[in-house]
Amino acid sequence: MASIISTLQKAVAASVLSLYNDNTDAAKVQINTTPPDFTGDYSVVVFPFVKISKKAPDATASEIGAFLQENVPEVKSWNVVKGFLNLEIADSYWTSFLSGLLADAEYGRQARNGHRLMVEYSSPNTNKPLHMGHIRNILLGWSCTRIMEAVGYEVVKTQIINDRGVAICKSMLSWLKFGEGKTPDSEGIKSDHFVGDWYVLFEQKSREEYEQWQQTEAAGELYNSRKKQEQSEKDFFRDYKNRWFNEHSTLGAEVREMLLKWENHDPETVALWKKMNGWVYSGFDQTYTDLGVDFDKLYYESDTYLLGKDIVEEGLAKNVFYRKDDGSVWIDLTDAGLDNKVVLRADGTSVYITQDLGTARMRHRELGCDQFVYVVADEQNYHFQVLFETLKRLGEPYAEGLHHLSYGLVELPTGRMKTREGTVVDADDIIAEVIRLATEQSSERGEIDGISPEEKIQNLKRVGMGALKFFIIKVQPKKKMIFNPEESVDLQGQTGPYIQYSYVRINGLMQRVEREQVDLARAHAYTHIQPQEKELLVALQDYPNIVMLAAREYDPSQIANYCYALAKSYHRFWHDLSIFNADTAEAKAFRLSLSKATGQVLKSGMNLLGIEMPTRM
Fold first, then answer.
1. Which of 157, 211, 395, 581 is the 20 to 30 Å CA partner of 41?
2. pLDDT at residue number 225
């Protein structure tokens, strides 16, 4: 279905050629929605053509407007305000557009473009359950995959699971020392929460050990020998904690010993690692199912942490890297506004960027992707700048197709969350809370009484999850945000349930259409389109452009906010105009068809966000 904007852009370019004998790129013609306080549907920015016409803006706009009305059947009338050419589109176009939209089940989607794209999201550690921050990561990643598929990409959904290292050994050691053989089943605890509890316990035990050590004579002597005149004893021990853990802590020594055993493939250590990671994976899978997400390919840091050393050798040969006297290998990125970055330690061991270099190449070869999207919090902005610049200098064939979908911190109204202190809010708790709130709100209204228990549960879950997902996704990714569960389910706010309620209203209308066998074909004969109808039609026309914009900017909030605006327009339409009691059969058919199209686009847009529509609310 050809876009009216595309049609107008081509027509304006043709007018400039005919009137002023100048070739204009149609794609660069600026056409915007006409502001509500002016007459028209679309406005052409004519100022770029003033130099060509050698006339005043109003005169230029008038000449182009006259040309368009004479040569473009879709243009009904025009007017000029301060150099802007406002165009009113013929009713016959809108009725034809509406008919075409209803006939196109794939409206808003593009044909396959022949490119394969990888989206990496979630990528948790196996020492704790998924938490609120993971939810934002997962929802952004999942919606990004759907949007990129909608614009023609073949998308591969991946995550790299951080299943090794000191943090994972802390959970393992804690369970080994204090667990007394307990299991998730024996304690009746979800398996990833069970492992996370041992991580929190380790941090508590470590804190107790540190506090006890601070009271020793050795600690006092250390403070006296190293203290700075301006630093209090409290500040000194706060800053010294990590060094203490590595040099003095008994628990720290045991963790390092366990990590060394794992790296040396000690059978008992590896068996424990597999068992506890297995518990975590089982818990993760349940949370992913509740969130409605999945993955095509899983990678594990235990398999990838040694990758990239061959790339370092290649980079040395190409003079992309340089070796210091101590044997460590570095890259100088100062000319790119970055820094000197180590890519291999003096002892030959990898750093994070080493394995990221190797993993990127491995994925390109395995998956055949020419574009990669990494959904990672903004704390890693610098890391990805370095990674992408390094891959470019290495001449990797996919280096120009890399994107970091960076997102800001998510908090609750009560403030920040800290895993080590056990104050983190788990994803499962948030999911349960929004469903509880949706259930509570529904019970107060009593609007889903009379349906089967199974359908009731399904509808409540869709509303609760719609509330959670929309509230997270509607915020532009780079912005920090506060997630308020109570606000997220508000039927009067900028929320998922508000949009779902519009769809439920429309669904009710369509059921009545079916029962009463209303002839919607008469919509084509409708004339005198009302402003509230035009507002919806213009918004529906814009849907494919919004999907393309969201894909181009890797920003699902574009679609979330579009859906809200469309639902808001529909509520105005519902309130202001009679639908089933319209004055004529043609008006009734048109308004019902317009409702159906709105429901179709709302469902499509929310689906791109991973949000299902309920049938009742």
1. 581
2. 83
Pairing of strands 329-332, 75-81: unpaired
CA angle 576, 578, 583 (to 5 degrees): 130
β-bridge partners, 119 = 157, 373
520 CB contacts (<8 Å, ≥6 apart)?
513, 589, 592, 593, 596
Are 616 and 504 contacting, i.e. CB atoms less than 8 angstroms apart? yes
Q: pLDDT tens-digit profile of 279-336?
A: 999 999 999 999 999 999 999 999 999 999 999 999 999 999 999 999 999 999 999 9
Fold held by 4-89: Gyrase A; domain 2 (3.30.1360)
Per domain, the residue ranges of the chain are 4-89, 117-411, 434-608
**Does the pLDDT at position 550 exceed 80?**
yes
Contact 120, 374 (CB under 8 A): yes
Q: Identify whether the C-beta of residue 273 lies closer than 8 Å to the C-beta of residue 168.
A: yes
Contact 520, 512 (CB under 8 A): no
Whether residue 603 is predicted with pLDDT greater than 60 in this model: the reply is yes
d(CA 163, CA 280): 10
Identify the three-state secondary structure at position 323.
Answer: strand
Buried b (16+ CB within 10 A) or exposed e, 486-496: eebbbeeebbb
pTM: 0.93
Pairing of strands 42-45, 75-81: unpaired
Give the DSSP per-residue string, 53-102. Answer: HTS-HHHHHHHHHHHHHHH-TTEEEEEEETTEEEEEEPHHHHHHHHHHHH
Q: What is the pLDDT of residue 2?
A: 67
Q: Determine how many CB atoms are found less than 10 A away from the CB of residue 310.
A: 11
- pLDDT at position 448, please? 63
Q: What is the DSSP letter of 36?
A: T
For CA atoms 453, 455, 460, 465, the dihedral sign is: positive
Mean pLDDT of 260-285: 97
DSSP state of 107: T
Classify residue 27 by its DSSP letter. Answer: G
Q: 75-81 and 84-89: which strand pairing?
A: antiparallel
Rg over alpha carbons for the chain, rounded to the nearest Å, is: 30
Write the pLDDT tens digit of every residue in 37-81.
899 999 999 999 999 999 999 999 999 999 999 999 999 999 999
Q: What's the CATH class of domain 434-608?
A: mainly alpha
User: Across residues 211-217, what is the average pLDDT?
Assistant: 95
